[in-house]
Design a protein that fits this description.
With 140 residues, this protein is an alpha+beta fold. The protein has a single domain, classed as Beta-Lactamase (2-Layer Sandwich), CATH 3.30.450.150. Helix content is 51%, strand content 19%. It is built from five helices and four strands. It has a four-stranded antiparallel sheet with strand order 2-1-4-3. It is globular. The N and C termini lie close together (9 Å).
């Protein structure tokens, strides 16, 4: 089952709402399982670069099918590979906080990445977004 644009918007809205509660200004990116962008949602006053970082982190997580923390460990273990992998992937590969896989049951259906806040804020916002998916209707 694919991640719908409706579900992606719900996830993004919840992540932004959580960021606002923390006083953070972030960009939220949601991609499908193939790393294709469904939503990029930049809050007012979010750092300009966050609008490029969030989609890169989300696509990376989806393409590797690993959460950001695991991707960061892989990057540290194999820096030479990560220095070149974006050339093969055809898109920037970026590991970082606030990037998580979106799963339905055991199937990866997409990824979320949040950028612009402190790493712990990005993580908390991504988690809040994911929690909204469990409350959404199964068809979303």
């Amino acid at each position: 089952m694919a991640l719908t644009s409706t579900a992606a918007r719900i996830i993004s809205a919840r992540a932004r709402e959580h960021a606002a509660g923390l006083g953070a200004r972030v960009t939220v990116a949601i991609v499908d399982a193939g790393g294709h962008v469904l939503v990029v949602d930049r809050m007012d006053d979010a750092p300009p670069l966050s609008a490029r970082i969030a989609p890169a982190k989300a696509s990376s997580v989806a393409l590797f099918q690993r959460d950001g923390s695991e991707l960061m460990r892989m990057q540290q273990a194999w820096p030479t590979l990560f220095a070149q992998i974006d050339q093969v992937a055809g898109t920037p590969i970026m590991a970082g906080a606030g990037s998580r896989l979106i799963r339905r049951d055991d199937t990866v259906i997409g990824a979320i990445a949040v950028s612009g806040g402190l790493p712990e804020h990005d993580d908390a916002c991504a988690e809040a977004g994911l929690l909204s998916l469990s409350a959404a209707a199964p068809g979303q």
